[in-house]
Design goal:
single chain, alpha/beta, 11-stranded mixed sheet, 31 helices, 53 strands, 13% strand, disordered C terminus
Length: 1505
Amino acid sequence: MSEKRKHHGDEEVVKELCLANGVSYENIAHEGSNVSSLEIFFSGFPRMVGLSFFPRLCQFTILGQNIKHIEGLECCPLLRELWVVQCHLTGISGLQNCQQLEKLYLYDNQICEIKNLELQIKLEVLWLNNNCITQIQGLNTLQNLNELNLADNNIEKIGHSLDPNVRLQNLNLSGNKISSFKELTLLARLPHLKELALKDPTSTSNPVCLLCNYATHVLYHIPSLQRLDTYDVFCKQVKEAAESTVMKKIMYYNMRVRTAQRNLAESQLSLMERKKTMLQLPGECIRTLNRTLKNLEGELSKAPASCKKSACTTEEGTTHLVEGSIDRSDPATDFSRNPATEHEILSKIDALRERLVLWTRRLDEIEASYKRGLTQATNMMEYTVQFLLMELESVGNIRLEEGSSKDPWFTSCCDLLHSRFSHSDFKVHNITGIKINRVIRIHNSALRLCFEDKLHTLLASEESPSQNYRRRLEHLFYIPDPEKNSEREDILCISEEGFKTTKQNKALDGEGAILLSNSLSVVEQPRIEHALRQASQDDSKHSTDTIHFRHGQIIVSKVFVGHSMPIREGDPLDRSRYPRVYSVYRNVDTKHRIAMNEERPNSTKMHTGPECSPRRRQWFVFDHELVLPEYIIHFEYITTGDQEQPHSTGIDDTPFNNISLDREVLNMEPVLKPQPRLRSLDDKILLNVARANVLSQITVLNLHGNSLSKIKEISRLTSLRHLTISFNEFTHLDDISHMPNLEFLDASYNRLVTLEGLRRLGQLKQLDLRWNQLTKSKEDTAVLKKHTPALLKLDTRYNPWIKAKTVRMTILGRLTTLTHLDDTMVAEEEAALAVRMAAGSKINQASLLAHSSTNSDRPRSLSLLSTAQLLCPLSPVTCGLSRELELDWTTKITALNLDSQRISKLINLNKLVNLRWASFNDNDISKVEGLDSCVKLEELSLNNNSINTLNGLSKLHCLNKLSLDGNQLSSLDAAALDRLPNLAFMSVENNYIISLHGIQRVRSLLELYIGNNQISTSRDIYYLKGLTNLIILDLYGNPLVEELENYRIYVVFHLPSLKALDGIAVEVTECESAKDMFGGRLTRDMVAEKLGHSNYTDITHLTLQSCSIRMVDLSPADLFCSLRSVNFDHNHLTSFSGLIYLPNLKSLCLNYNHIESILPRQKTQFPLTNRQILYSKVHSSGYGQHSQSKGKGETGPTGSLEPLMGSLEVLHLSHNGISNMANLQLSRLTNLKALFLQVSLAIGNEISQVEGLEGLHQLRELVLDRNRIKALADNSFIAQNVLLELHLAENRIRELNHLDPLTELRKLFLGMNKLQDITELDKLEVLPSLTELSVVGNPVAKNSLHRPEMVLRLSQLQVLDGVMVTLEERTRAELINSDSSACSQYPGPSLPTTEINLPGLLPLMSRNTSLRGMTISAGLQNFMHGHDILSSNMEEAQFHYTYKHKKHKHGNAVRNGQADITMRHIRRAGSNLPTTGLLHDGNIITHRSQEQDSRFPNCGKPPPM
């Protein structure tokens, strides 16, 4: 009956299907075979039945039905498109026969797992959105899949599940729980992906979409993407912006990682210095004991030669030699002497050896302490590097912040940990406290978002949410289980991804919850027990730290414990037993913990004492999303001994370190008397020391404890077998050569720096080289290999070896005969390994196949590894090329990684023509060669080799990155760098480079790392100024950093494009400080840059015009001892600045500056008072020394100031805006002979009063043209009694007073002033030496009526207003004067002057007479100083002056318009005037005297510089 009912139901379903698609149910058998498409919506199709009637069905759409399973499609093999949407499907099934399926839409169902799609290999479109899928899987065979929609599921990880779907173009993962950028990075494996949605508008966003730089990260890793989250991103500029952003981040984090590595190097250096300090006392004690020991051995060796055994009887059985020991079988111990003395000596030797054993142990303890400290520092550095890489990979969304005492959260963490520490719990270990070394704050945006969302969800779901939910928040401790996980990896994983889920913990055989505690002792117990077990199992006899678990680290997490309940010991941690709680806890009381400790016989009992309370708990949290890691704390335990000895190193100071014990042993009998030290040797001394009769008899020679540095005579001792030269002054062993019988050589405690020179010691079996200065193991071992082929025992301890870690293997690899090295027997396995390492390897076909790659594109990975290191492990050539090696297989290689392959030479690379990325780090390469054919090389890394030159790079024009850290470079080859036009990154740290010269050729450089070299001069910074693209510079560790004052802002100023310097970002405030301090500052480096050389002592003239100079700092000034002339026109100087220190400066041009004073104005430390402001407005002769106008005879305050610039003779200060001459303090320039303060433009100096010249007693020439002077004060020229030339043209002078001190004045220029009355000119009679005068342009000179008066009154006058005063003119003036006198006595009509003719005189020319066409020959009467005097027309001369003045109004600043009217003579040192004549057109010309001015040989201007 049920079957019939079911059949009837199916029939109704089929009828409904036919009805919905217009198919006649009655004719279904006939029509159904022609139907290719069916669809049914919302109801009427509860089961997939009746499909057998439609064998040709290609498209089937089911929407809104109540279908649980896909079925009935067995008869539809042609189905290509299937829609089963909103139908409550719980799984994917029933598609086995639908192998032609191309499109499958199963969204809005309840599917939990992707499966049963293996046969749908033609599937192109798959929609599974809005289901319950948690994991992407089951798609491996769908290689034709083009579109995949998994939106609105519960997917957290992408993983590698989509890697096979290489044709995928459209992917929608919106509305899932993807929170990590690492997951998005995996999508880069889909080469054809064009569209990606992670936050589709119709879905919620993934948590990862809320993180910073989300889009940038996606676009960088998937450059083929054209659409992201409905946004078009195909634009080239968008991709380039993402690329640029990521590359900047990579550069930044690379800098940070390098800084961390450098900090480790600093810590290592600090530990090494501490180690050296600690070694001083043991070293001195060992030295003293060894000296005494060897003295006693020398005494034993002084037995008669006849009693000595042959050295060939020396036994070889000794296998362990302590510091200072010798074999008892040594011939030196065979003697004949007083048995009592012999016994005392041997007893003392034994006691000395015991002390040496103890002190040697002390050295071992110090070394162990050093290694522990270095290991701890290395661990911290590795943590830091891992944190930085984590930040980079998360694009800054995970950030780990280092705390300091200034941070409140740091203090809170410290207080929290201290409050959770119980002294009684650790009392059994003598632990009294903890010391916190480091606190790191975890900023993980994704985890915090997840925690907050989960918390809000829980609080919202509670029926009565508590307003005090914060009370259920705890800060609990977590420590990784030392039995299961690597501590560092676990902490890093938790910092990045959070705590593991319950399922993951169970899979790792862990608890079903996260184990936390609020007590340090409880959470630390498993680690302490593990450490104690390890210590008991290991051979820890040499361990010097009694606390094997001294250093620890914990994660402090914020935990929402929520509704919690207690559990008892033994109760299972199954969440199903506690369905309504988020966590459970277990109280840890005293009895319980004691019982746990007693169960473990090796564990330490931990007592809580009376402070035990329910607060001491173990927590078990079930939901990992409710545990947010916030801090990582690194700490160490403090013991009782640490408190008693705050500076203790953890080394047990046992009684053997007591120096008094050494003293007791040293004072034991016999105490040998000091012997005179030998400083040289001859035959007599050798025979005496060896107690022999002839040199050929000497077989044992002890020269211990002398002051020898050379022993040339030793080579004649051909029979010598045993030689001791310890405790001498040897630096080389050149003299010890060609000694065929020498078997034993003790050269300890000398100053050997090399073994070069040691020759032909074919029988040498034992060599002691301890406590010397040897550094180069490779070179010294090569000498021993060549010249000591029989060497069996070698001791090289306590030398400052370079790369000390590799010394032992280097020696064993080359000296294969050794049985003992450094007092340790050489094992066969060790020797064989060393020989293999020493043999090295060559670049051959096998190494190329094993360490190369053929990938054409660089992996888009946020990694700091080089491209070669990234590519070679990913795609080794052996996988693709080893099967069938084609003839050109080498041409396919693009990346080569040969790090640490013991390569000594770059060979067999000539066929790698397509090589783009190569790494040869940590080898023994000494030359960059063999790369000429690799012209496409973009990255080259040669770190930690032995390269000393850049030769060999000249053909690598495509090189973009070059790294040569840890080599032996001493300079940067400019010729080689000049051929690298594309170099953007260069690292040459840890070399011996002394200058940056050559780096200026690499103009494309973006990053330069050149730390830990020998760069010491500030001038080297100037080589970087041309690198306008440079943004990262690291000079840390160079002497320049410490020696250059204000180093950082100095570099920032000269390199304004820098973004980071020495691993620290350049701040805006630093740029501003740099501009304030160094803007316009002229230094000797700047001079060298301008002149192109640094031979400062050769500079005699210096011209730097228009260079924006504000300050001069040419220290030390003695470097510029030859500098005579300086021209700094058109700059921004406000004072003479550092120019005052130049010792031999004679001429100084500072025109067009802003000079206010010789010395800089003192900065006011406090606000000026009203009185000070008032004083500042009063004319003063010096800053801070205010006085009112000086009376007659006053010399002014500057007279008491110290003179400056004693050699300065000529000073130009035109166009400086000077208004007060007194403020200039010019009186301090006591040797000044010429001073120019004129102006030729409308804006210039504004001097209104001539003052401040009281100290210029040597002044010969003063130019004050074009100022605002109205009158001359009584003290204006009080000290200028030797002034020869005075220019006051174009001022506002009305009166000519107070000129009487100028008794030697020869020339006076007063043109273009406001002199109106002829009586003012009469005042010039006080100038008895005046020979030239100009008053042109004054009212008094109108119509030249003043001329006869001046000619008559100034008897020495030779030139007036630019026109020579002739004899005829002077005679005529005298006649006019006498006639006027007569007329005044006899009144009558006056006669016209033009009609007066006197016998013997030329007639006066009329006013209109022209001089054009006239020729006036030389040879006229010579007057004063040998000047030639020519007559001229005064009117035409005056017109000529006016024309020339207007024409040259904006002419030379040094000589203005006066230069054209006063027959412009040279600024002379002597008294010769120029020869003046007239051109044929009437213009006045000036003929220079043959003796040129020594100050300005170039037309009165400073010479070119």
